Every structure is written in structure tokens, then in C-alpha cells.
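Example 4.3 (complexes with small molecules)
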Amino acid sequence: MYQEAKLHYEQQGFCFSPIIYDEESIARAIKHQDLVISGRYETGVAPRSPFDSAEATRGQIVKIDSSHRADLTIREFVSNSNLGKWAAAITGAQAVQIWAVQLLVKPGLGANESKVGWHQDRNYWGPWEEDSELFTAWVPLTDVEEDCGPMVYISGSHKWGFLNQGNFFDTTHGSFQDTIQIPDDSDFAAIPVLLNAGQVAFHHKLTFHGSHPNTSGRPRRSFAIHMRTERSWPKKGEQSVYTADLTDHDMNPVIYGTELPF
Ligand SMILES: O=C(O)CCC(=O)C(=O)O
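Answer. The structure with 2-oxoglutaric acid bound is encoded below.
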């Protein structure tokens, strides 16, 4: 099972796990997402980007950076040891550490504001040395069907290199797709990420992805958990919230193995 997923990850730049979270822990995580969204922080520490209802546009995706700093239930959820085993198995790593977590709720109102533009995560991960092994585990807390605005991966795009194009906040998928420079022998093959709650989608830092509006009438809830392996190095002398406190394992849980360079 791991072997097949590892091969898929290497060849296509993404892969999926079976369900690894039970219904009870998912229900708890949903409740705690709502606590953090409403500004109730059980640790007393605010997330890096709290939700501001006064600023938010109706229908836009709720995106809160590092809610696991604010909430112990969320911290426990993202630190799940099965998640660590999967992350290690698909990368062949000795150690896996979480260094950021996005809480994501895409409202089911069908609003264009809830789209996520095509991007490579590497675009936002400048504080890491270029050859660092970095990736994301995206965990849905609700079933994701076609009408829920699923994430869409561009198969094999992790082999195109860092193109420095795209924008998470850009919602004009079509035009970007038409203008993006991709290698001559490649296709823009879009694969929707249709999952049950509690499965995990893993993607490489260079895999292009985005997502469409959620027209289902139900919120699409997830965490995007950003991880690194022992083959990753923060840039020396660069100040960044992402790499500032990697030795603090409460805020940056090591979910597999122990040995990591700092
Ligand atoms: O949830 C989405 O639609 C996009 C998430 C994303 O961009 C990511 O996990 O890197």
C-alpha cells in the first residue's frame, strides 16, 4: 500500500492515503476549527493569521495560518502518528516535522472568492534552501465531491521545476492555464482530489494545484499541513516565521523519527 503511494508520489507529484482518522477525531477537529475561527484560543497563543470577520469578504475561503499554535486538539490532530508514518513512507524519510498548518474552510456558496488559484507551494517557501524536501499533507474533515470545490492537481508538474508563476489568490484559472510555460512534452492534466473525510492527499512542493468554487451548499473543511524531512535546511541569516523556532517541537511537532537539521 505504502509502496504504491510512494511510486505515485514520485511519478505524479501527489498521492492519497486510505482513511486514517476516525469519525470522532474528525468531529472534534471540526468543533475546534470553529473555536479558532471565532477567536477562542485555548493555549492563549494566536494563530499567525487570525480570521477577521470584519475584513472577510462573503464567500471567500477562510485561511488561518498555524491554528495548531492556538489549539491543543488541532495540534493533536495534525501530530497523528499514522500521518507521520505515511509521510515518511512516501518520501523514504527518517524524520518528518510539521512547520506550518493552514486551517481551510471553503464556504458552500459557490462564490468565486472561494477559488484557489494555480500555484506551486514553493512560491511561498523562500526561507528554505532550494533543494529542501518539503511537502504538504491535505486532510479533509468533510467528504470532498465534485461540487465541493475539490483541490485539483496537475499531474507530473513537480517535474517542471520551479516556474515562479501562479498565485494562490488568483481566481482566473483559465487564463493562467493558457499562458503558463510548460515543457513541450508535457500536458496540463488536471486531477480532482475527491476524498472521504479522514483520508490524506500528499503533494510535492512543486506540484501545481488550485481549486474551484464550492457549489454544494456545505462547507468544505480541511487542514493543509506543511512538512519537511531531514533533507531540508532553513536558509541561514533569513528571518522567517516558518523557520524561526524549528527546535520548539510543541509548535513544530516532529511526527516521525527524531533527527532533523536546524
Ligand atoms: O484547499 C485548497 O483548495 C488549496 C490548498 C492548497 O493550496 C494547499 O494545500 O497547498
